Amino acid sequence: MIEGILIGLTTALTFQNILMVMVGCFFGTIIGMLPGLGPMTAIALMIPITYGFDPATGLILMAGVYYGAVFGGSTSSILLNAPGVPGTVATSFDGYPMAQQGKAGKALAIAAWSSFAGGTLSAIYLLFMAPSLSKVSLSFRSPDYFALMILGLTAIAAFSSKGQFLKAMMMVVLGLMLASVGQDSLSDITRFTFDNMNLTDGISFVLVVMATFAMSEALTIILKRNDPTSAAKQVSLTELGSIKINKEERTKMYKTIPRSSVIGFLIGVLPGAGATIASFLAYGMERNVVSDEEKEKFGKGSVNGLSAPETANNAACSGSFVPMLTLGIPGSGTTAVMLGALLGFGVQPGPRLYMTNPEIFWSIIMSMYIGMVILLILNLPLIPYIARILAVPKNYLIPLILFFSVTGIYVMSFNNFDIYLMIGIAVLATFLRLYDFPMPPLILAFVLGGLMEENLRRSLLLSNGSWEFLWDRTLTTCILATTILIVVWHIYKTFKKKI
Amino acid sequence: MNINTTKIISLLFFIFSAFYLYTAYQIQVFAFDENAPFNARTFPIYLGYAGLFFSGLKLILPDPNTIKVDHKNLEYKKTGILILIAIIYGATILKIGYFLTTSFFLFASYYFLGERRWILMFLLSFPFVAAFMYLLHGILDIYLRDPFLQSIGVMG
To answer: Does the beta-carbon distance from B43 to A180 stay under 8 Å?
Structure first.
C-alpha cells in the first residue's frame, strides 16, 4: 500500500494534475451553486476537455468538479436556502437560519471545515478499504456481478425519486434498451440499427450524458422560465460576517465529524444511495445523539445540525468511488458518468484496476486530499467573488451550456447525425423531466447495459442455459433476495396508497 | 383509473416496449447460434418484457403523486427556437466548418433569448469560439475539422 500511495502522490502532485484539481474544484463550485445544475451536468460539460488528457488527469479533473459542485451546493443552501444539489438540502436546515442571524460567514466556514474533515476521513477509509475490497471482489463471478448490477439499478431507482419507483424502473429499462443498440459484442450482429450505418457502433455514452443532462437541463431552464443565476446575484450582496469558529463550536464539531463521516462513507458505498440519503441520515442521527439542550437548537442554527450533513455528503462522495474503483460498478449517477469516461479512455475499472493501472487508482485517492485542501483554502475565501462570476445573465449561460454540449459531440465524431440524435434525446428527456421521470437511473443503466449482458451471457453459457446460477452461490442469492425485497416493497407501497 | 399525462407516457412506453420486443425477435442470429443458451437476441427479449412489465404496472397501479404541469407558464416558443437553431447548426457544421457555425449558433441563441448588447454578444461568440478552438486544437491537441479555416490557411 505504501508503494501505491507513493505512486498516487507522484502522479497527483504533478503541476498539471494539481492545476486540474484547482480548475475542477473552481468550476464545480460555480456550477454547484446554480440550483438545478448538479455535479452530473458539471462533469458532463468537462468531458470534451478531458479528451486531451491521460486517464488519470481526466479523472482527477472530474473528481475535483464533483467535490466542488457539492461544496458550491452547500453555499447556496446556506446563503439562500436554495440547495444547488439535492445532497445539500439538509445543510439548509441549520445553515440558512444561521445566515439569517448574521453568521453566514461562520456557517460557510463550519460547512467548509466539515466538508474538508468528512472528505479527508472518508478518503482515509477509502485508502484502506479499496485495496482490500478489490482483493475480495476478485472472488466475484459472473452471476455475482450480474446480480450486483441488478441490485445497483434497482437501488438507484428506489432512491433517486421519492414515490416514483416505477417511473425510475422504466428509465432503467430505457437506458438498457439504448445500450443494446449497435453491434452485439460477441457475434457482431447488428441490433436495432434499422440499416443506419451511424448506429452500427451503438449510441455514444457522451452523447447520452450530454443530451439527458447538459442539453436537457438548459432546455428545461428556458421552458420553465427558471433563472438559476438569480440566486447567485443575491449572494454577492449578502454580508457574510466573520468566518472564525470559536472553541465551543470546534468542540461540537470534533464529536459530530467522526460519526457523520462513517455514516456518509458507508451510505456512499451502497449502490444508488449517495450524498442525499447520507446527509439526511447523518442529520437525523445527530439530532438523536446530542443533548436535549442542543436538540432544541436544531432547525434554528445548530452547529451540530450543520456540521453533520456537510460531513456526511462529502464522505458519501468518496464512498461512492468504492464500488466504481473496486467492482467496476458505479454506485451513483455521477460515478456512472466517470465510469463511462474511463471506459472511453480504454481503462476498465474493476478489481484489477489497482494492479493494471495503479497510477489511476492511487492518484484518484490521493487527489481527493488535495481537492479538499484546495476547497478549503481557495474556495472558501473566494465565495463572494465566485458568486459575482455567477451573475452572468441566463441569456448567456444557456447558449454556453448548449455550446459545450454540441462541441463535446462534434469533436468526438465529426458527424451531424450525432448532433441530431442528441437533440432528439434531449427533447425527449426534457419532456420526461417535466413529469418527474428521473434521469440518473437511465445513465447508470446505459453504462451498465453492456457489462450486464456480458455477465448474463457468461452465467447462462456456464450453466447450459439454466437459471440455476441465480441460487447456486449464497452471495448471488443474497444479492438477488435484497433486490426482490426492494422491488416488492416499493410496488406494495404504491398499491397500499390506493387502499 | 384516472387518465393523466404520466399514464399516457406509460402507455406510449408500453407500446414502444412491444415494438422493441417484436424487433428483438426479428434479430437475425447465426444458424448455429439459434438454439444456444444465449445469443444476440436473448438480452433484448428480456428487456422488452421488462419494459412491458414496468410500464404495464404503472398503467394499472394508482398514481399517488400525480404531476400537474401548467402548460400556460411554459416557454415553448423560445425552447422551440433554440432546438431549431441547434438543428440548423447540425445541418451546416460539416459544410461551413466549426468556427463560423458555432459562432453564429451562439450569436443567434443570445439574440433569440432576448439579449441586445451587440458588442458583448459578439465578444462571447466569435472571439470566444476562436479562443476555445485554440485551447482544444492548439493546446490540448484535439483535432477539429474546419473546411473554412483550412481554405483560408488559418488551420493546417
So the answer is: yes
| A174 with B51: Cβ contact below 8 A | yes
Find the closest chain A residue to B76 by CA distance: A223
Q: Where in the sequence is the domain holding B26, given as residue range(s)?
A: 5-60
Supply the pTM of this predicted model.
Answer: 0.83
Shortest distance, CA B90 to any CA of chain A (angstroms): 5
Among candidates A366, A374, A299, A343, which has minimal Cα distance to A447?
A343
Between B18 and A247, whose confidence is greater?
B18
- Mark which of B14, B30, B60 sits at the end of a domain: B60
The answer to whether residue B65 sits within a structural domain is no
pLDDT > 90? residue B45: yes
How many domains does chain B divide into?
2
**Tell me, what's the pLDDT at A161?**
64
Single-letter residue type at B76? Y
- Asked if A141 and A467 count as a contact pair (C-beta separation under 8 A), the reply is no
Rounded CA separation A132/A126 (Å)? 10
Provide the shortest C-alpha distance from residue A267 to chain B (in Å).
Answer: 27
ipTM for the whole predicted complex goes beyond 0.85? yes
CA angle A162-A164-A165, nearest 5°? 100
pLDDT in tens, B98-150: 899 999 999 999 999 988 899 999 999 999 999 988 887 877 777 777 888 88
* Nearest residue on chain A to B128, alpha-carbon basis: A400
Which parts of A284-350 are beta strand (E)?
Answer: none
- Taking an 8 Å cut-off on Cβ atoms, the answer to whether B136 and A435 are in contact is no
Residues of A whose CB is below 8 A from B65: 163-164, 436
